[in-house]
Design brief:
The complex is a heterotrimer of chains A (423), B (286) and C (353). Chain B has one domain (5-120, 131-273): ABC transporter involved in vitamin B12 uptake, BtuC. Chain B has ten helices and no strands. Chain B has helices at residues 5-37, 45-63, 66-90, 95-119, 135-153, 155-165, 174-200, 212-222, 227-250, 256-273. The longest helix of chain B has 33 residues, at 5-37. The model of chain B has no long low-confidence stretch (mean pLDDT 86). Chain C has 353 residues and is mostly helical. Helix content of chain C is 71%, strand content 1%. Chain C contains 13 helices and two strands; from the N terminus they run ααααααββααααααα. Mean pLDDT of chain C is 87; it is low at 1-14. Classes of the chains: A alpha/beta (423), B mainly alpha (286), C mainly alpha (353).
Chain lengths: 423, 286, 353
């Protein structure tokens, strides 16, 4: 399959800029880049979900796309979800559906048991596997996987790679989108790097350094000094197994979908006066149809122009609709709204998800500054790098339960196991 | 309010009439159930029945044939379904507002046409009445069973229910399934409207559906979006209606107008009687 | 994302049916939409009439002269516009908050009943009673929603029917006029002062319109209300007590509709009778949508629909065409507006593939 000179813009942003790419049968191709580089958009165009503004697709094949967000019906069983692929009209009892489901699972080579279970009861890793089985069952010539390991434990990731290699050996072209360099280097035969919508590197042999350099235009951040100047203050709040103190950043890490949203929601309900940075920025962040000034005013922040200055928000003015801002700038509005009144407690859930390097750095700076000034910060994140960089202490969340509190040193050896549910 | 034996007789005698009277309601409930399972709220079912009532009478009087009258009713309902479906499925317009507009459209159009046709004396002739009543067993026995099988034991039904739970799961085909659901609803609502004029009343009257569509919506919720619940809910409602007739006939001093309000109060109670654990189709209304 | 449990309509993330985004950016688009709706309505009415043998020109002439062609007609139109303005405001406030208040009809009736009963205490208490009663009637629905997750879109409609029958009982029973000749009440003991051929209720209605604008755009309460309507989950995270907000919006909305009923009683009819409401509540929806949910534009929108109703009445008198064409007109306006609004998104989504 061949993509020629694909370009696609959304409003003023050029998401994909004149990209040409060939996808070969039977190979494993990795498309990498940082958030917002255009990887998902390019692949969605390849899959026919989006139409490019210009450019063409030649020798198109049947494509299976495994999205980052699950397209499953939680109320249905595994068997029923698999049966949705079928487009004919026929009678089917539970037994029939289950038999067929087992057949589909076996022929895919992936392990998934007890097909009569409801999808809502599955673990995140199992749901991911189900999506994969669904895609494979359609026997596509090209299989595109969007950040497939983001919710898998290391063991499940290995299983996935095994399946990928088997499919490739059978002739399927596999494209996988990722931002995790170690995995990409382990599995991919060919690697393509995207940055700001352009294809900047295509290679069969790469090192982590060469890839990282291609992905980001500047040198990596200097590692933060190991010393923490902060002295932990008094207890600010207790909630279940969480004890949060002033002057500290406590990170709750875990694979997404293990109870983080519920925890954040409970805290929001219990501590309405705290500063809350919601996890789902697009749905719960700014109110897109109101202006920046109005969004800020919801928490009593009246000096919108000052805020725009202070937080370097790239906007036309305070009367611009918040929905017109980029993701990073929207997050800055949320930060301004929540942090300006100097709350004693800040609960930040996935505050830098989907943000580019510059915005991420900004958010981290602000959080550090707030902690230095005395705030008690709870950071809920699935990004381990972020956790280790910011946190004074860590706890791991797995299936709704929290581990004991650890320092950064203790955590570095135990965190991988804890996140997978191994004690 | 003690009912002595005389009143109990009245209630029992009123029951068959109540079942009959509740038949259009039951048809509407089943139709709306299918549609809501596919993820759409159709407030306009009230208007659908009203239009069907009119087209049924028109068809029956023009052809002097009751069966064709029923077909006419279904045709009228299908017309409304097409308009509603265009806005809600193709344009993805807001379902509540569109449904309300459909109801206004139906009231306005039927009243307008009724008045115009009265000039031509088309509504003055007597309406052909239904002979053997096949509609009641259809509504209370056949349709519930058939619909239950289709929704829960066919792949089509599975996909339709998926539209109501997570339409993204079968993204390109959602519109098709929702349209099919609307067509089924039109079939049922059309029959309901036709039954109303051709069997229960002696012709068309302005606004004759009197809120049955909204009551149907409530019963769908009460029945937890299941066929068994639909039949049960409508039966209970019919029972309450029988009580109303009995009280009216006995003229026990309960004011007539307040009795008229009883069906709606009962429906309110139905909606409140639901404990917070009702689970609607997840994507209902989206 | 499946956490909350509630049947039918959940406002989370729902936007008001017309994209009432802040700022005048879409003013041109909105004016175009409104104009298109007006034109389409008039066109459709003319065509429908023609289909049954009436001359479209004749129809339109009667419509226009009957509504604005003479001082008398104009007075009639303005008198009809007043309750429409208030029920329209009622819907504007509710829809802006993301609450489906379809109960304007019932709140109108209950407001009028309360006004009648309180009229012995004077004009102002009477009007206040109307607002309180409307707010209370609407709050039944919001309480049911908050306690039992009962969808207000249905409960408000059911309450309409109950109110209609309540009125029927009152005018035939306990509140029936002393002479007991007709099913209507005695005259109210207070009236709105007259202004030429009109009554002071007009001033109240316009004042309410300005007040609603000020509430929505110049107060914190209004900010929170709009935020809740645009995106209730984001509003929640920004510290808005969404449940309380919805209840307050519903109450204010009901008060407006109740006031409409009170004014209609004290300024126009002076008595209550069975078909008192005659659709003012439901018409409020069309008024609100044509005004694109803007409180000040509601004035113009109410005038249009007032003219439509008055003109339709004239049509019925002179040409024996059912006055229900006004209802038909409302439906067309709503559908055209919706079609316009969502038509663009449809066109855009088609171009993507």
């Amino acid at each position: 399959m061949r993509l020629s000179r694909i370009t696609k813009s959304f409003a003023a942003t050029r998401a994909v800029d004149d990209v040409s790419l060939t996808i070969e049968r039977g190979e494993i191709l990795a498309v990498i880049g940082e958030n917002g580089a255009g990887k998902t958009t390019l692949m969605r165009i390849a899959a026919g979900e989006l139409a490019p503004d210009s450019g063409s697709i030649e020798e198109a094949t049947s494509i299976g796309f495994v999205h980052q967000h699950f397209l499953l019906v939680p109320e249905f069983t595994i068997a029923e979800n698999l049966a949705l692929i079928d487009r004919r009209f026929r009678f089917a009892t539970h037994k029939t559906l289950e038999r067929e489901a087992v057949r589909m699972i076996e022929s895919s080579g992936i392990e998934l048991h007890e097909v009569s279970r409801r999808v809502a009861d599955l673990s995140v890793g199992e749901k991911s596997k189900l999506e994969l089985i669904k895609a494979i069952a359609r026997k596509p010539s090209t299989l595109i996987l969007d950040e497939p390991t983001s919710v898998l434990t290391p063991r499940e990731s290995q299983e996935l790679f095994r399946v990928m290699r088997a499919l490739a050996a059978n002739g399927t072209a596999i494209v996988f989108i990722s931002h995790k360099l170690p995995e990409v280097l382990a599995v991919a035969e060919r690697i393509v790097v995207m940055r700001s919508g352009k294809l900047v590197l295509e290679t069969r042999s790469a090192t982590p350094e060469s890839l990282a350099l291609a992905m980001t235009p500047q040198s990596p951040l200097p590692a933060p000094s190991g010393e923490r100047v902060r002295v932990r203050g008094d207890l600010a709040l207790t909630h279940g197994d969480v004890q949060l103190h002033h002057n500290e950043i406590l990170a709750i890490v875990g694979v997404a979908g293990n109870g983080q949203s519920e925890l954040a929601d409970e805290l929001r309900a219990r501590f309405p006066r705290a500063g809350h940075i919601p996890e789902d920025r697009t749905r719960d962040g700014v109110i897109a149809q109101m202006t920046i000034a109005e969004n800020l005013a919801l928490r009593g922040v009246r000096n919108a122009e000052q805020m725009i200055e202070l937080y370097s928000i790239r906007a036309v003015g305070p009367r611009q609709l918040a929905g017109d801002l980029s993701g990073g700038n929207q997050q800055k509005v949320v930060l301004a709204r929540e942090l300006d009144r100097r709350p004693e407690i800040i609960i930040a859930a996935e505050p830098t998800r989907g943000l580019d390097i510059e915005a991420t750095r900004f958010v981290h700076e602000r959080l550090r500054a707030a902690a230095d000034a005395g705030a008690a910060i709870l950071l809920i994140t699935s990004d381990l790098d972020e956790a280790f960089e910011l946190a004074d202490a860590m706890q791991v969340i797995y299936r709704g339960k929290l581990s004991a509190r650890m320092t950064a040193e203790e955590a570095s050896s135990r965190v991988a196991n804890l996140m997978a549910g191994v004690a | 309010m003690a009912l002595n034996m005389l009143d109990l007789d009245l209630v029992i005698n009123a029951l068959p009439l109540a079942i009959l009277a509740a038949t259009p309601l039951l048809l509407a409930v089943q139709g709306e159930l299918v549609v809501q399972r596919s993820g759409i709220i159709n407030l306009g079912i009230e208007g659908m029945m009203l239009v069907a009532a009119m087209t049924a009478v028109l068809a029956a009087q023009l052809t002097n044939n009751v069966a064709l009258g029923f077909l006419g009713g279904i045709a009228g309902a299908l017309l409304v379904a097409i308009v509603f479906g265009f806005f809600v499925i193709a344009l993805k317009a807001d379902q509540i507002v569109t449904g309300t507009a459909i109801n206004l459209l139906a009231v306005g159009a039927t009243s307008f046409v009724y008045r115009e046709l009265q000039r031509g004396e088309i509504f003055v002739q007597s309406v052909p009445r239904i002979g053997t009543d096949v509609v009641v067993p259809l509504a209370w026995i056949v349709f519930p069973i058939v619909l239950a099988i289709v929704l829960w034991n066919t792949s089509f039904g599975l996909r339709l229910r998926a539209c109501g739970e997570n339409p993204d799961a079968i993204a390109p085909h959602v519109g098709r399934h929702r349209a099919a659901a609307l067509a089924i609803e039109a079939l049922l609502a059309g029959t309901a409207g036709a039954y109303l004029t051709l069997a229960l009343s002696s012709g068309f009257a302005e606004n004759m559906t009197a809120g049955r569509g909204f009551i149907a919506l409530s019963i769908v919720i009460f029945g937890r979006w299941k066929l068994k619940g639909a039949v049960l809910g409508t039966a209970i409602f019919g029972l309450a209606a029988a009580l109303q007739y009995a009280l009216q006939a006995a003229s026990r001093g309960v004011p007539y107008h307040l009795l008229l309000a009883v069906p709606y109060i009962v429906t309110l109670l139905i909606l409140c009687g639901i404990a917070g654990k009702v689970r609607a189709p997840e994507s209902l209304g989206r | 994302m499946s956490t909350g449990r509630g049947p039918v309509v959940r406002p989370a993330g729902r936007r008001p049916p017309i994209n009432a985004a802040s700022g005048g950016r879409r003013l041109a688009g909105r004016t175009a939409a409104a104009s298109a709706a007006l034109l389409a309505t008039i066109l459709l009415l003319a065509l429908s009439g023609a289909a049954f043998g009436h001359s479209p020109r004749e129809l339109l002439t009667i419509l226009i002269t009957g509504s604005v062609g003479s001082t008398f007609a104009l007075q009639g139109t303005v008198l009809k516009s007043v309750p429409l303005l208030l029920t329209g405001l009622s819907v504007v406030i509710a829809f802006r908050a993301g609450v489906w208040n379809i109960g304007g009809e019932g709140q109108f009736i209950v407001g009028a009943l309360a006004a009648l009963l309180a009229s012995r205490f004077g004009l102002v208490p009477s009007l206040l009673a109307a607002m309180l009663a409307g707010a209370a009637w609407a709050s039944i629905a919001s309480l049911m929603r908050l306690w039992r997750n009962a969808p207000e879109v249905l409960t408000t409609i059911l309450l309409n029917f109950i109110a209609i029958h309540l009125l029927g009982w009152c005018v035939n029973g306990p509140l029936r006029e002393r002479t007991a000749m007709y099913p209507q009440t005695d005259v109210a003991l207070a009236t709105l002062p007259r202004l030429g051929g009109l009554h002071a209720g007009i001033l109240l209605a316009v004042f309410a319109s300005v007040g609603a604008w000020w509430l929505l755009y110049r107060t914190n309460e209004g900010l929170r209300l709009r935020a809740t309507g645009f995106n209730s989950s984001a509003a929640k995270w920004a510290g808005v007590n969404v449940r309380a907000q919805l209840a307050r919006a519903m109450a204010i909305s009901g008060a407006a509709a109740g006031l409409a009923g009170g004014i209609e009683l004290l300024g126009v009819t002076n008595r209550l009778f069975e078909r008192f409401a005659s659709g003012y509540g439901y018409s409020g929806i069309a008024v609100a949508l044509l005004a694109q949910l803007h409180p000040l534009a509601t004035i113009g929108s109410a005038f249009f629909f007032g003219a439509l109703v008055t003109g339709a009445g004239e049509l019925q008198r002179t040409a024996n065409i059912s006055s229900a064409v006004a209802t038909l007109g409302q439906a067309v306006v709503i559908l055209v507006l919706i079609g316009y609004e969502y038509g663009f998104e449809y066109a855009r989504s088609r171009s993507r593939h």
